[in-house]
Every structure is written in structure tokens, then in C-alpha cells.
Design brief:
By secondary structure, the chain is mainly alpha-helical. It has a domain of 109 residues. Helix content is 45%, strand content 0%. The chain has seven helices and no strands. The termini are far apart. Keywords: Membrane, Transmembrane, Transmembrane helix.
Length: 187
């Protein structure tokens, strides 16, 4: 003989089961939680890219740096990289590494191209990684001169290095901070 109706369950069987570590389906006991995790977060508005202050072939504005860069680009690169690294690496070290890469591989433009990308991101300048590589591959001295001029136009005395500019900045001559990061900090 079989029963077609289920037996009534005692009231304690409908309570939430004790946690045992074994997964079970307790869907009748789940309530819809209020969750803020699935709420859309406001996205920071992308800031428009800023054009370079001088053109790629604006070397005639600073002939001394142009000549130095044509004959010894490692010095100009070292000065630029020291400021971009905020003094964490020395001009001489970066210049020597640039020269070593140039001697061993002939591809020092790859190293300086990475710094151009860092430069653009730091100062929110126009361009992209592809154009950075093309510019440094095709015309390395012009690219380094443009970066040098850009730092000068932003108020740096590139020949002083990072620490020299920090000392000068304390005297009130120049604002040395890059543009503020846009958007808010969120968890």
C-alpha cells in the first residue's frame, strides 16, 4: 500500500538547518539580500588629451640641446628619464644603460620608446604606443629633443635633474607636480 499524500513534517524540520560544511539547497530559507555590490559605480570622466607644447621638428628653438642630442643622445635620455623616474634612478645610470643597449643591440630606441609612453601617461599627452615606437625608431634625436623641450615648458630645468628641481621648487620658482589623477578612489 502506498501513500500519495506526503506526511506532515514537524515544525522543527522547516527551520534553517545547522551548518555542517556540506552544501545543501536551502532556497526556501534564503531571503533576497540588499546588495550594493551590483550597483553601478559612477565612472570617472576621461580627461581630454593635451597636445605637445612643441612639434617633433621644433629643434631650432634650442640648438644647444639639439646638437647635444645628435652627438650624444644618452645624455639627453638620461636627463629625461631621471625626471620621469622622480629621482629614483640617476641620469648617469639610465644614460649608461641606453648606451649599452645601443652598443650591444643597436635598438636603444626601444628603451627610450618605453619612457616616451611613460612621459605621455604622466602628463596626459596626445599619442599612443604605436606612434611612440614609430617616432623613436624613425627619428630618435627629434623625439628626445621634443621630450626635453616639453619638460622645459612644464617648468623643469632638465640639466639640474630631479633633486635639483625639487630644491628649486621649494623656493617657489616652479610647480613640479604632474596633473592630478582624475576620478575618485573607490574600493
Amino acid at each position: 500500500m502506498s501513500y500519495s499524500t506526503p506526511l506532515p513534517q514537524p515544525s522543527y524540520a522547516r527551520e534553517r538547518p545547522v551548518a555542517t560544511g556540506v552544501p545543501i539547497d536551502d532556497s526556501p530559507f534564503q531571503k533576497t539580500p540588499i546588495s550594493f555590490q551590483n550597483q553601478p559605480r559612477p565612472q570617472p570622466q576621461p580627461q581630454p588629451l593635451v597636445p605637445w607644447s612643441t612639434g617633433l621638428c621644433g629643434c631650432f628653438d634650442d640648438c644647444s640641446n639639439c646638437c647635444l642630442t645628435c652627438w650624444c643622445p644618452c645624455i639627453t635620455f638620461g636627463q629625461i628619464s631621471e625626471i620621469l623616474d622622480r629621482g629614483s634612478s640617476a641620469c648617469g645610470v639610465n644614460g649608461a644603460l641606453y648606451t649599452l643597449i645601443a652598443i650591444l643591440t643597436g635598438c636603444s630606441w626601444v628603451y627610450s620608446c618605453m619612457y616616451r609612453s611613460k612621459f605621455r601617461k604622466t602628463y596626459n599627452l596626445e599619442g599612443n604606443s604605436c606612434t611612440d615606437c614609430l617616432i623613436h625608431f624613425c627619428c630618435e634625436p627629434c623625439a628626445l629633443c621634443q621630450e626635453y623641450r616639453e619638460l622645459k615648458n612644464k617648468g623643469f630645468d632638465v640639466s639640474l635633474g630631479w633633486h635639483g628641481n625639487m630644491e628649486r621648487g621649494r623656493e617657489g620658482d616652479v610647480a613640479l607636480t604632474p596633473p592630478a589623477a582624475y576620478g575618485s578612489m573607490e574600493r
